[in-house]
Amino acid sequence: MQRTPQGETVIVPRNFKLLEELERSEKGLGDMNISYGLVDSSDTFLTEWNGGILGPHGHKTQHDSRFYELRISIPSNYPAIPPKVRFISRVNMSCVDSKTGEIIYSKLPATKNWNRNMGIEQVLISLRAEMTSSENRRLKQPLEGSTF
Q1: Residue 136: CA atoms inside 13 Å, Cβ hemisphere, count?
Q2: Is residue 53 helix, strand or coil?
Q3: Which among 74, 70, 43, 42 has a CA at the least distance from the CA of 55?
Q4: pLDDT value, residue 1
Q5: 112 contacts 105 by C-beta, under 8 angstroms
Q6: What would the mean pLDDT of 41-58 be, rounded to a whole number?
Q7: CB 74 within 8 A of CB 47
Q8: How far apart are the C-alpha atoms of 53 and 63, rounded to whole Å?
Q9: Residue 53 burial (CB count, 10 A)
Q10: Can you tell me the distance from the alpha carbon of 126 to that of 110, in angstroms, rounded to the nearest whole number?
């Protein structure tokens, strides 16, 4: 959602928002500890994305310097609802289903407090921040390279 100079609210269409997010990611703007982009550059509906998170460094976590691969699916009513996010890399976190790798939306701050001004980047940043939380930082992690 954006506001015009006259104070009117404008709802940005799904694909316009996704194109902005894609451009931002491709230009390397934002947090360099996360990455995201289209699985298939010919996907005109911008539906399937790859994501990556570099585990937090120096926070005495089990995630230190590990790389996590994710798959992001964009629903047709995005950004009214958050994207569907699933870890490909096996991870042990309280906000991730241990059998499927799917994010538990009610346990991740970015998805629990979702609004249409948020995007893929905020979800990935929120996941990375959760890796340093007292609930997750010391959880034993699966062998690096294992997948769901």
Answers
A1: 21
A2: strand
A3: 70
A4: 58
A5: yes
A6: 94
A7: yes
A8: 10
A9: 24
A10: 6
Instruction: Report the alpha-carbon distance of residue 72 to residue 61 in Å, rounded.
Output: 25
Structure tokens at 116: 């249409």
Region 109-125 average pLDDT: 96
Over the stretch 5-26, which tens digit does the pLDDT of each residue have?
Answer: 677 777 888 999 999 999 999 9
* b/e 116-142 (16+ beta carbons within 10 angstroms → b): bebbbbbbbbbbbebbbeeebbeeebe
Q: Please tell me the distance from the alpha carbon of residue 89 to that of residue 49, in angstroms, as a whole number.
A: 15
pTM to 2 decimal places: 0.91
* pLDDT, tens only, 79-89: 999 999 999 99
Residue 51: count other Cβ atoms within 10 Å of its Cβ: 24
